[in-house]
Amino acid sequence: MARCEDIELLLGPFEDGELEPHEMQEVARHTATCPACDLALAGYRTIAVALRGSQPIPALEGFATGVMARIQSMHLPPPVPETRWHWYDTVTGWFTNTVMMGGLAAAVAIVTAIVVTPEAAKLLHMREAHAQKSEVVASIATPVQVSKPAIAAPPINNVASNDEESDTGGSGNQVVAAADNSGDAGTEISSLQSDNPSVAVWTSPNDKTTVVWVPDQQP
Amino acid sequence: LSKEPRHDVDETEILRRAKAGDSQAFSLLVERYQRRVVGVAQAVVHNPDDAVELAQETFVRAYENLGKFESRSSFSTWLYRIAANLAIDFRRREGRHTMLRGEEAETELDRLPSPRGNSFQETARGELNKRIHDALEELTPEHRAVILLREVEGLSYDEISEVLQCPRGTVMSRLHYARNRLKTILQDLESE
Does B113 lie at the interface with A, CB-CB under 8 angstroms? Predict the structure, then answer.
C-alpha cells in the first residue's frame, strides 16, 4: 500500500480527474482504506464547494451589445479577410517549401561529395592499378623503351601501394624507364630502382603508387 | 455556475463568418463566451466590476486580431489567454488586489447579488462569502488565480497552463499550496 506522504500530493489532481488511470486507481484504493487521506480529500471538496458558491456573478445583460457598440464606435476595421491570410499563407508556404527543398538538395549534394565521391575515386584507382599491373613489362638492366612482349614480368609476390616506401636500400642500380609508347597512360613506368636484379621497384608519381616486384621463391 | 460552453459543430462556420467581417457572427461568439471570459478575468483581478471591463476589452482585442487566430488552440483558450494577459497587466498596473480589504471588501460584498429576502440563511451566506473572500485575499494573486480558474471556472490543468502561460507542474504545485492554505484558514468550515 502506498504511503500517505506519496498520496497526499496526488489528492488534488485525483479530485480534479487529472491523474493517469493507474494513479487514479492507486489513490482510490488508498483513500478507501486510509481515513486520514479520505478526510483530506473531503476537505478539498468542501473548499471547492465553498469557492464555487462564493464568487459573485456579475450581471451580463447587454454585455454583447455593449461590446459590439464599442467596436463600431471605435471604427475598427473588420478582421483581416480570410482570403488575404490564405494568400499570405500560400506565398509564405511556397517560399518555405522552396527553401526547404533547396536546403535538402544542397545537403544531399554535400553528402554525395563527402561520402560517395571518395569511394568512387578509390574504386577508380583500384581499376587503374589493376590495368597497370596487367600491362607493365619492366626491364632492369638498362634504360629501355618498354613494350609489352619484351620481358615477361616475374610473378608478383608482394605489392606495396599508395605511397608505401620500398625497402630495397637501392642506391646503385638506378634505372629510369621511358614511357610505353603504346599511348596507354596506365602502363607508364617513371622509374625502376633496385640493387638486386631479381627485384624491381616501380613507382608511379602520377597516381602516387609504388609496386615492389619480387620473384617467386623456388622450392 | 455555467459549465464549459458546448462547442457546437457550427462554431467553425461562425468563426469563418466572423473572420470575414460578419459582426453578427462575432456577436454570437461574445454571447457564447462572455460568462467564462469574465470569470477568467475575475480569477486574476478578484473584482467583478474590473473583470467585466476587462472582458469587454478582451472581446475588442479578439475582434482586432481575429484574422490571426489560426486554430492552433481552441478559440475559447485563445480568448481566455487574452483575458488573462489583460487582467495580469491590469493587476500589475493598478495593484487592485491589495485594495479589497477591510471596509472596502465589505462594501464589495454588500453589492453582490443575493436571493430575495433578508433571511438568516442570507446573512449566514454573506458571512461565509466574506470569510472565503478574505481567505482568498491572503493568497498571492498567482495562487488565487489558479485555484479560481480550476474550482470556479472548471479549467483543466492544461488550459490553466496555457491561459496563464506557465508550466503544468507549476499549475499543480500552486494548486496544491492554495488548497492547503485555504484549508488551514477555513478549517472550521470542514467541521460545519
Answer: yes
Min Cα distance A47 → chain B (Å) is: 7
Could you give the CA distance from residue B14 to residue B172 in angstroms, rounded to a whole number?
35
Residues 123-152 (B) with a CB less than 8 A from some CB of A:
125, 128-129, 132-133, 136, 147-148, 150-152
Q: Which chain B residue's Cα is nearest to A80? A: B67
Q: What is the distance in angstroms between the CA of the first residue and the CA of the last residue of chain B?
A: 23
What lies within 8 Å, CB to CB, of B65 at 6+ separation is A79, B82
Q: From B125, which residue of chain A is nearest by alpha-carbon distance? A: A54
* pLDDT tens digit at each of 192 positions of chain B: 344 445 555 888 899 888 888 889 999 999 999 999 999 999 999 889 999 999 999 999 999 998 888 877 889 999 999 999 999 999 888 764 444 445 555 555 555 444 444 555 556 677 888 889 999 999 999 999 999 999 999 999 999 999 999 999 999 999 999 999 999 998 877 655
Closest chain A CA to residue B124:
A54
- Cα separation values, B181 from A10, A43, A58, B102, B140, Å: 16, 12, 27, 20, 11
ipTM, two decimals, is 0.75
Q: How far is CA B33 from CA A48, A64, B8, B64, B79, in A?
A: 23, 10, 13, 17, 8
If one counts every other C-beta atom within 10 angstroms of the C-beta of residue A58, the result is 21
Q: How far is the C-alpha of A43 from the C-alpha of A28, rounded, in Å?
A: 16
* Mode of pairing for the β-strands spanning A174-175 and A200-204: unpaired
* Neighbouring C-alpha atoms within 13 Å toward the C-beta of B147: 34
Q: Report d(CA B96, CA A20) in Å as an integer.
A: 39
